[in-house]
Design a protein that fits this description.
Blueprint: H1 6-23, H2 25-28, E1 35-40, E2 43-48, H3 51-63, E3 78-79, E4 88-89
């Protein structure tokens, strides 16, 4: 199946949907009033006001999910808090919450 085809996108949605249900349910639950997990094909965006949840999400994602062929690219991963020297922090150290 060629990458970028309609069928490829549909199969990817099924695969990553299963990953979310089995491995990321704590982050994608509709009961979370302080966070939301978004995905477009294989790109994730986790938005939360809870730094602990953000760190837990990154812990799970950096370990990877070989059974799904899912590994994150640390070079493409960004946070707005300090996490790992290999993951880009896009918040300046002098910035503070208002």
């Amino acid at each position: 199946i060629p990458q970028g085809s309609v069928l490829s996108a549909i199969l990817c949605s099924f695969l990553y949907g299963d990953l979310e249900n089995k491995k990321l349910a704590d982050f994608s639950s509709t009961d979370n009033s302080d966070s939301v997990l978004l995905r477009l094909i294989d790109d994730y965006l986790f938005i939360t006001t809870d730094v602990g949840k953000a760190r837990s999400f990154l812990d799970i994602m950096t370990k990877g999910h070989p059974e799904y062929g899912c590994m994150i690219s640390k070079e493409k991963t960004m946070t707005n808090f300090d996490y790992d020297t290999e993951i880009m922090n896009i918040t300046l150290p002098t910035q503070t919450r208002a």
